[in-house]
Amino acid sequence: MAPVEDDAAEPGARDDVRDSSGGRAVPVRADDTTVSRQPSRGRRATIQDVAREAQVSVSTVSNVIRDAPGVRPQMKAKVTAAIRKLGYRPQAGARAMRGRSYTIGVMLTEFSAPFQTEIAEGIADELEPSPYQEIFVAGGLSPERQQKSIEALTDRQVDGLIVIAPAMATSWLEKLGSGLPTLVIARHGGSAQYDTVVDDDQGGARLMVDHLVALGHKRILHTSHPAGRLKRPFVLAHTARCDGYVNAMKRHGLEPDVIETTYSEAGGYQAALEALARPTPPTAVFAGADIAAFGALRAAEERGLRVPQDVTIAGYDNVYASTIGRVSLTTVDQSGHLTGQMSARLLLERLNGRTQPVHYVVSPRLMPRGTSAAPVRKSARRLA
Q1: Is 308 exposed, middle or buried (0-12, 13-18, 19+ CB in 10 A)?
Q2: CA torsion 320→324→327→332, rounded to 10°?
Q3: How many CA atoms lie within 13 A of 172 on its CB side?
Q4: Are strands 25-27 and 103-108 parallel, antiparallel or unpaired?
Q5: Nearest to residue 288, comparing CAs of 221, 201, 224?
């Protein structure tokens, strides 16, 4: 008799299948000579169908799906081939009833935010070889909508959560993390209840201010985003960046100049348009995000200003569009892809049993490009 995998079954899994013609329980074993039967047209393939096709026990199929240790490579290949042939997909609800759904919920604020989509790609790439599947939702900017989005994911029995730039109360996040493995991106302050991945936002802003001052700029505008209800130290990235900008300006003996709009193309456009219309406009605009810097570039173009000859414009994030030659945006890199990868990796560690919180900090890098240069002196402007 051929050997049978002796792997432990998932709770609730059975080693027999129900014969469709008479209701008799028919054991499925590796040496079973029962004729392979395809699921009827329109019916979703079940784990029993896969076991029958591969001629193994249901528990073996379950262990292959869960990527459990101890399954022989030959048996795994046999089951995988049957899964592909039948187009079998485990039902998340049924799997959750047996302990895990093998799904990870990910809340972004907006799908249009380029840096967050780079984070999402990093998460997906890290989870790809694992048995977990990511589910993305857009939570918007308001705490109320974000909370509803997260609750919708938990209602679907996800095994863990990755939330990007959450604006809800700290106490609510603490309660969430105490009951479900959770990782929070871009929110400073840390927690004993969940893991975090953040950029050294203050350090990154300092790098940019030092760069602009070294070029000779003194009137440096910073475009930021409202802090909302959050209080230090539990603040989002934009508040930490603004703090870093203010501190760096004061360290150089310069007056901080901040306009709060939104981290969006429209927000950067609005802030730059306002500042560049002043009698004494800034010589440099340091937008708190690349997407806002793109709006500032549009505002400068509309006013007939050349970048960087008439005004320097810089951003933060180093999204892909900033690297394009026609844009060539001076910015700060914090690697969205790495942020996503580390977030997924830390959450998988939590799901595999780690209990102590980890707070991972991404080191920023200055990326000087074509939109920053020394300010042109007034006399030189008149000669031009």
Answers
A1: buried
A2: 40
A3: 13
A4: unpaired
A5: 224
* Rg (the chain; Cα; Å): 27
pLDDT in tens, 246-304: 999 999 999 999 999 999 999 999 999 999 999 999 999 999 999 999 999 999 999 99
How is residue 200 written in tokens? 């050294």
Listed in sequence order, the residues at least 6 apart from 118 whose beta carbon sits closer than 8 Å to its beta carbon are 319, 320, 336, 337, 339, 340
Strand 16-18 versus strand 25-27 pairing type: antiparallel
Q: Is 384 helix (H, G, I), strand (E, B) or coil?
A: coil
> Per-residue pLDDT tens for 129-165?
999 999 999 999 999 999 999 999 999 899 999 999 9
Q: Note if the pTM is more than 0.85.
A: no
Token code pair at residue 100: 């895990």
Tell me the one-letter amino acid at 270: Q
339: left (phi over 0), alpha (psi -120 to 50) or beta: alpha
